[in-house]
């Protein structure tokens, strides 16, 4: 797990209770803005930068990848059009050909909601103790100049706006009879103008899941205005399933905007809190990608017998 220059998984998974990340970055014009970016990575293109980030994982050579070779690899990427996806797949395959040995390896180019599609694919694998290696990567570094030109960044002159970041996470996830349990999973696609109504539909479906009286934790998007407004406008649909003790987490406030990596990060963050016995009850995770894709998952925890 890597976020910007931070590479200690225990530090990152325990945010915001571990030491806060430094959000101070300096643009080429000397302006200080809120951002979480690594130094020394490629700057000529998004794909080149993501390639450098992927090389920090234990996939940089076939020997390091050996412990994972028996599992499919589920790649979670930013939303890409068809031609971009072909280019990215070819490039990643050329760098890490041994990561494609398993026939069920797949790409999920759907932004943060791609994680829930990958989780659904894992659930559909017809095998005992099904498992997969999830790799999520994204960077908003190349967009920094555009954000700056449009005054979208948090700075000394502006106290609200975006906090661009970059991250890469690799996690081996397996289906088990104890630990974190997937109670239910729903997925939708819609245009931006339909987003509020679609989230209302997802919330309604969550409220109809049998055996769930109160939602103890909500993981909701906070990385872009449209998604925030959409779930806020749909929030009342959860009225019968939340109370004064329900916790709301928007992880981007302590990681920055890590784009398509947010879905996997939120899942691991939630898993860690259950595992550390910091939370109990049923949790809801909503992921809204900036284009088309949405997903909602509900979890509970089952202790070993």
Weakly predicted, low-confidence segments: none
Mean pLDDT: 93
Large-scale geometry: globular
- What class, by secondary structure content? alpha/beta
Name the strands of the widest sheet in spatial order.
1-7-6-4-5
Order of helices and strands: EHEEHHEHEHEHEEHEHEHHEE
Q: Could you estimate the helical fraction of the residues in percent?
A: 25-40%
Which value, in Å, is the CA radius of gyration?
19 Å
Number of strands: 12
Could you characterize what this model shows?
This is 3-oxoacyl-ACP synthase. It comes from Shewanella litoralis. With 305 residues, this protein is an alpha/beta fold. 30% of the residues lie in helices and 23% in strands. Strands 1-7-6-4-5 form a 5-stranded mixed β-sheet, with helices on both faces. Helix 7 crosses helix 8 (225-234). It is globular, with a radius of gyration of 19 Å. The mean pLDDT is 93.
Keywords summarizing the entry:
alpha/beta, 23% strand, 5-stranded mixed beta sheet, 30% helix, 305 residues, 3-oxoacyl-ACP synthase, globular
Topology record:
Elements: E1 2-3, H1 9-13, E2 24-26, E3 32-34, H2 46-54, H3 62-65, E4 73-77, H4 82-95, E5 106-109, H5 114-124, E6 131-139, H6 144-149, E7 166-174, E8 179-189, H7 195-207, E9 215-219, H8 225-234, E10 247-249, H9 252-255, H10 262-275, E11 282-288, E12 293-302
Parallel strand pairs: 4-5, 4-6, 9-10, 9-11
Antiparallel strand pairs: 1-7, 2-3, 6-7, 8-12, 11-12
